Amino acid sequence: MRDTQPTPLSRSELQARGLGSREIERALRDGLLVRLRRGWYGTPDLAPSLAHATRIGGRLSCISALESHGAWVIRSDLTHVRVGTGIAVPRRVDARLHWTHERARPGVDSPEVALAVAVQCVDRETLVAAVDSVLQRGILSAPEVDQILMSTPRGRAVRALVDGAAESGIESLVRLRLRAHRIRFRSQVTIAGVGRVDFLVGERLVVEVDGYAWHGDPNRFENDRRRDRQLLRRGYLVMRASYRQVIDDLDGLVEAILDVVRRREHRWRGVRRTELGTRRSLIDR
Asked: Which of 51-55, 108-112, 274-278 has the lowest mean pLDDT?
């Protein structure tokens, strides 16, 4: 997904494409170009976050850049912008600035640079979810991620929590929170007659988290209900959470899981065990 999106263009780059001063002014009047900053322009389809970073005088970085490269991130209220020292930045800036001694030409930081900046910026859950996505979507390879994370104590701590097989960002968030509460679970468990489920807590509590793409898809909705029915017939308990419920009320979801665990309803209690096949074993951490 690299280098496929519109980027800011300097005046010299426009001139190299054959646009003189008159042509540039005509393109601005016709709405074919937008002036972002002195000497810098963009096309109308330039991503708003990238246009904002250019107006400030820097380049898109940190989790804003990772999202631009296709990673799943918990969206920040502020655009993350890397700015070189000596750049005249507007007095009031609606952005998270990352100052650097390097030249920060308008554009988007590479995934490698963006991740290195994020390691020193965002909270642990946000960072782990982003790294999971970077690996799962092939934006960076495991050796590339290791080279970045293993160079700092904070990065090494995050690397121990990363799972590149996580299929969605909200799955990463739930996994981290379950671990933090020392809840025994396995992820991506295959149950005979049903298929793979997101989490199996204890022996019989199935927790499914529905990504944003699931909303509004009638086929997925019907298939989920069929799977839930099959799980119930086999004696499992099913707890399903939407994308918005995970993002806005993750504590509430975890508390509901803890309620079931405290009552020990996540155990079979003599109910015949259904034979399980597990693709992975993430355990009791």
From this structure: 274-278
- Domain(s) labelled CATH 3.40.960.10 in the chain stretch across 169-278
Residue 166: closest CA among 195, 194, 196, 123: 196
The reported pTM is 0.85
Q: What is the pLDDT of residues 174-188, one digit of tens each?
A: 999 999 999 999 999
Which string of DSSP letters, residue by residue, matches 174-220? Answer: HHHHHHHTT--EEEEEEETTTEEEEEEETTTEEEEEE-GGGTT-HHH
Q: How far apart are CA 212 and CA 218, in angstroms?
A: 13
Per CATH, which fold does 169-278 belong to? Endonuclease; Chain A (3.40.960)
Contact 244/252 with Cβ under 8 angstroms?
Answer: no
Q: Which residues contact 10 (CB under 8 A, 6 or more apart)?
A: 39, 40, 41, 106
> CA–CA separation, 1 vs 5, rounded Å?
8
DSSP letter string, 81-143: EEEETT----SS-SEEEEEESS---SSB--HHHHHHHHHTTS-HHHHHHHHHHHHHTTSS-HH
Angle at alpha carbon of residue 123, lines to 120 and 126, rounded to 5°: 110
